[in-house]
Every structure is written in C-alpha cells, then in structure tokens.
C-alpha cells in the first residue's frame, strides 16, 4: 500500500478499473442477460461495482453496441446508477479484410483489428459521477505508425492493422472545477501465436504507446494531471511476454507506480488476476498509474478472502479483480 500524508482540500477522488469478462458469444446477448435479471455473473459484477464505491469506474469486457444499450442497462441495474456514461466502438471484431492468421479464411475472429467474433466484442466503457470533455480517440492509429514499433517485417497487416487491439482513449473528466485526463486501454494478450511472436510484439507496442504519447512523438497529448489505467495483460516480472515496455512505463518519472501490497508482506505486490491451472496463476496485469504531481492517498485490489458473500461474488464475477486508487490534487 502506498500511503502519503493526507493533504488539505476536497474529498479524495476514487478511480477504479475492472476487467469484468462479461463478453458474450454474440451481439445482443449481454444486453439480454442484463435485462433478464437472473444471470449470476451479471449479479456478481454489479455487486463488485457497488462494493468499490468508485467515483469514476473504467470497465472492460463489456460488449459494445451502437446505442450503448448494454452499458446503460448495466448501469441502470446498480443501486446507485452513475449519471455519466462513455463508450465508443472498439477495434475488437472490426473487420480488416485480410487473412491475418494465414489460415486461408477471411473474416474470422483472428482476422479482425482486435480479436473478436463480432464488432464490439468485450468492449470498454466508463461510468462516472462527473462529466466528460471531448475524448481523444487514438484507436485508429496504425501499428506501423508507432515510432519504434516491433511490427514484424512483411506482416500481413501492413497498411491496415491498427495498433489498438481494443482502444486507446484519453478521456478528460471534469472534477469539481478541475480536469483529470484518463489514459484508457486494454492490450492484447502476449500469447496465442507462433514463433513470430506477433501478439507479444503488439502487446509491447500497445503499452509503449503511452510512453511515446508522453514523449510528444505522436499527434495529440496526455496532459497533466493524468492517470493511465487499464489492462496491460502483462506482469512486469512474471510469465510470458516482452517486458521492456511495461517496465519502462512503470519506471517513468512522469508517473507514479502504485503497488498495493499484501498485508504484512511488504515485498509481495497484490495480484490483479487469477488464471487457474493450466494457466499461470495469480499475476499483476491491470494498472492504475497516476501522474507524478497527484497525491495518492491509498490504493488496493478488491479481493476479499474467506466465505463472506462478497468474496464469493468477487470470485464469480471475473478472474480479474477490481483495482482502485484514491487521490487528491496537491
């Protein structure tokens, strides 16, 4: 846990990120399950959201639709719905017209801009107590146009493949007369490919994007104060993947690396996901990284233990755990 002296001023702002894993196998099915009010996973996700009591919550794993109906229905099912919602079409399931996986067939999930059986599969949204300003959407940036990218030579996606497997957004939130910029993303897993390591390279570059944006090497900006939050799908210390980009981001002096620790074990950072066997187990792959000038009051992972009802709901909701951060301006 990172704990600084509490400054004077307004109440802390709580930010949270949660990869809900609510995605379904086809368009409209998530909305159906929410409206039926009898789906156990949906009920568990709602319980997790309510327990976090976040002022601004970024959700991933929520299927996108053109009217934002699924996100709105999920919000309406909360005991205390959020007044402000944001979502936009992600790259998941968006056709490329190319045979990206080289299997001789087109228009399959692996041929899309981001893996997805349909447009918007497992998208992202924001629920907020505060209003938004105009988003900067970088999701159309081509992978090959990222400075220093690792896109393989001769890749079948040259000229068409976007960097973002899901999204890269900079969303300004208006908080009590002040503006906080949220850098939002969800990177592709760095596995499920062959020796060309295409997914590993793309995962690296989706994380590297934030460093390049802060460097001024891309059109647009991530103005201070900011918080980068989302799913990197990569642990900086363990398992497969190219770790240079996540380590560079975590060590960047323009931001703070919040590392909530296990109680009584200061050397062990909390995991944010549990991929059971034969998966890699517990890892830290989800991040909330505030800019250096923000005052961090507390941070943590919503992962209760034991047989309490909330502990069972957290385990039923998703393999990922909600992460949260309390901060104030200096």
Automatic annotation (TrEMBL):
Cited Pfam families: Exo_endo_phos
InterPro entries: Endo/exonu/phosph_ase_sf, Endo/exonuclease/phosphatase
Keywords: Endonuclease, Exonuclease, Hydrolase, Nuclease
GO molecular function, one term: endonuclease activity
Gene3D superfamilies in the cross-refs: Endonuclease/exonuclease/phosphatase (3.60.10.10)
Domain Endonuclease/exonuclease/phosphatase positions: 37-320
Descriptive protein name: Endonuclease/Exonuclease/phosphatase family protein
């Amino acid at each position: 846990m990172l704990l600084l002296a509490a400054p004077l001023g307004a109440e802390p702002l709580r930010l949270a990120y949660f990869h809900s894993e609510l995605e379904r196998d086809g368009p409209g099915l998530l909305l159906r399950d929410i409206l039926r009010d009898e789906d156990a996973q949906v009920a568990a996700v709602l319980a997790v959201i309510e327990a976090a009591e976040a002022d601004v919550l970024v959700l991933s794993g929520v299927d996108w639709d053109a009217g934002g109906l699924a996100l709105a229905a999920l919000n309406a099912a909360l005991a205390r719905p959020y007044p402000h919602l944001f979502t936009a079409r992600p790259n998941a399931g968006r056709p490329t017209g190319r045979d990206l996986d080289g299997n001789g067939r087109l228009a399959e999930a692996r041929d899309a801009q981001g893996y997805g059986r349909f447009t918007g599969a497992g998208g992202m949204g924001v629920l907020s107590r505060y209003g938004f300003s105009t988003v900067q959407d970088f999701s159309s940036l081509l992978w090959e146009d990222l400075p220093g990218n690792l896109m393989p030579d001769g890749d079948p996606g040259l000229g068409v493949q976007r960097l973002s497997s899901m999204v890269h957004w900079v969303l300004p939130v208006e908080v009590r007369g002040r503006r906080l910029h949220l850098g939002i993303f969800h990177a592709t897993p760095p596995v499920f490919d062959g020796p060309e390591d295409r997914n590993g390279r793309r995962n690296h570059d989706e994380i590297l994007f934030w460093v390049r944006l802060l460097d001024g090497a891309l059109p647009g900006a991530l103005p201070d104060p900011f918080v980068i939050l989302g799913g990197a799908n990569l642990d900086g210390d363990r398992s497969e993947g190219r770790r240079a980009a996540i380590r560079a981001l975590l060590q960047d002096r323009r931001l703070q690396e919040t590392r909530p620790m296990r109680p009584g074990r200061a050397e062990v950072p909390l995991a944010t996901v549990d991929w059971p066997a034969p998966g890699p187990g517990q890892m830290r792959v989800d991040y909330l990284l505030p800019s250096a000038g923000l005052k961090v009051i507390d941070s943590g992972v919503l992962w209760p233990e034991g047989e309490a009802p909330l502990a069972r709901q957290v385990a039923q909701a998703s393999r990922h755990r909600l992460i949260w951060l309390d901060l104030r301006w200096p």
